[in-house]
Amino acid sequence: MKTALVIVDTYPDPGIARHALMQCLNRFRADECMVFSDQDLLPGTRWIPIEPIRTIRDYEAVVLDRLAQETRCDLHLIVQWDGFVLDGQRWDADFAGYDYVGAPWPHLGNLVGNGGFSLRSRKLLRAVRKLRRTRTEGEPAEDLQICVTLRPRLEAMGVRFPDAGVAGRFAVETPGPNGRIESFGFHGAFNFPLVMSERDILEHMPGILMRMGKAPNMWFLFILNALVRGQLTVARALARDLQAHRAPLWEALGPALQQRGVPAGLLR
């Protein structure tokens, strides 16, 4: 059974995406690495040129349709810039017995699961592509399509999903109360302070800031995790970017951080 490591990324600054790929390749043996990008992201990998990704639908067109056409492997470990393999020793052969494995979503009753760091079989790719021929506009993100919208039909086609226990050993999106991640991989930039050194985060900070979205809770958790890990320079870099370029977000986050015991002047 052959496994491909897959990434879809066209951001102008590829540094943090390249870092994620290298962490995976250093910790997990893949038979090939497929890079869907508008640039040769990591020489020596299999580069499939695509147009720049501008919308979530552009991303879906690649990961849900194009990948099924281009693959030469049985399993596909899909990663994004904000997630990678943490411990190759935590790989379990049982994972390969399922067609889709992703981190459980606590906010959805531990439903499986997150697509940003996920394992997908060729069977899953083909089944989803077949069902998407009748897709309509306004559908949710691709992992929600697979795990919620299409799941009953996929299961009727023989597609297998694991329970939350198995999925939690594969990947984590939201760590437990001790702040430790003890799984094969993870997803979520706000987890970087829990799995990366301050030096590595600062090295890639321009690319991270460029890619961070508008969700206040993501920034909030990123800053809190940095402070918990003693990465004050990282926390200040995030806060300063918010204050300089995303003032409405900072107006909401500043007081919320103070309520969690962060002194008002600490992040200046």
Calculate the terminal CA-CA distance, rounded to whole Å. Answer: 52 Å
- Could you name the ranges where pLDDT drops below 50 across 5 or more consecutive residues? none
Query: Count of helical segments?
Result: 12
Q: What is the assembly state of the chains in this entry?
A: single chain
By secondary-structure content and strand pairing, the structural class works out as alpha/beta
By CATH, the architecture of the largest domain is named Alpha-Beta Complex
Helix content: 40-55%
The level-1 CATH class of the largest domain: Alpha Beta
User: Spatial order of the strands in the main sheet?
Assistant: 3-2-1-4-8-5
